[in-house]
Amino acid sequence: MKNKRQRKILEIITGSEIENQEELLAALAGEGFTAAQPTISRDIQELRLVKTMSDSGKYRYVQSGTTDAKFSNLLLQTIISVDYAMNMVVIKCHTGMAQAACAMIDSMGYSQVLGTIAGDDTIFILLRNEENARVLMQSIKKMIS
Fold first, then answer.
1. Where are the domains of the chain?
2. Three-state secondary-structure class, residue 28
3. Contact 135/57 with Cβ under 8 angstroms?
4. What tens-digit pLDDT sequence spans the chain (145 residues)?
């Protein structure tokens, strides 16, 4: 039963943006699996699931070692601070890391990003409007905190 449940968990997180254990429990119940929260917590650890930011700016579970997980880890280790002004997000990185982080941000394919520029330790991201900039800034802050 455990193997079937864990395979179903991987299937669910691949097809849906599951943000927390409660959503995962509900999705499993919808598929006919009953489990308690501690069981799901153990499954998450055994499957080496991590949370990363999705294209929509929400957090979601992914399996460690996937591109999404590597992206999340790179940003966590690279970014020092993030802020926004008007429709621009400014990210401060460790020296020499801005271009790598910027390439990862570009790979997100966030549709509201008009363009990015990376220097040695700073990234500028131009977005369509101030609300998009605020949302992106908050998502990145959430990811690195």
1. 2-68, 74-144
2. helix
3. yes
4. 888 999 999 999 988 889 899 999 999 999 999 999 999 988 988 888 887 777 677 778 888 765 556 666 777 788 999 999 999 999 999 999 999 888 888 877 788 899 999 999 999 999 999 999 999 999 888 877 7
Pairing between strand 88-93 and 122-127? antiparallel
* CATH 3.30.1360.40 matches 74-144: yes
**Token pair 């990811």 in the structure block, residue:** 143
Answering whether pTM is above 0.70, one says no
Read off the tokens for 15. Answer: 């097809």
Phi, psi of 52 (to 5 degrees): -140, 165
The fold adopted by the segment(s) 2-68 is: Arc Repressor Mutant, subunit A (1.10.10)
> Taking each helix axis from N to C terminus, what angle separates 21-30 and 2-15, rounded to the nearest 10 degrees?
110
